Here is the input.
Amino acid sequence: LVSAVRMIHRHGLAVVGTFIAGFDADPPDVLRRQADFIQEAGIVMPKLWLLQAFPGTRLHRRVAREGRLRSNAIGEGTMNFSPRLDLSELGRAYRETLAYIYGPEATRARMRRFLEDYRPRALRRPAWRELRIFARSLLRQGVMDGRHSLDYWRLLALVARRAPGALAD
Here is the structure.
């Protein structure tokens, strides 16, 4: 899968990945394995969820029948049923994994991995809205965030060198 994602990047598309943990067949290290994949593949915009049993679905009926349904409420960062994995351990691992993959170091590492492969197809003129967003990013991350601003400028220079067309994306 890593090579497939990287091939997609080489064709000028960025993969946006959504990952779900909490399936009955998941091993205890599922979240670590997902984080490793996200990093190795260079998925710059990952989204991580815990499985939910939506009312009206087969999963909802099955966990209700098995006495594992905890509520019908759906919410990010929680499960509405008891998974086979220990729920408190899964919740702890979920929070740690989120902190890791959304942290500045892991995010920059994913961007560098992505830029090793990404080849945008054509340069295009950015829209005014995109220019305003870029200017805001320069100010907030490049100037105001003193702790990480040097890393931000280095990453921006890397983008300009390796995939200048990505600046418009």
Summary: The chain has a mean pLDDT of 89. The first helix runs from residue 2 to 10.
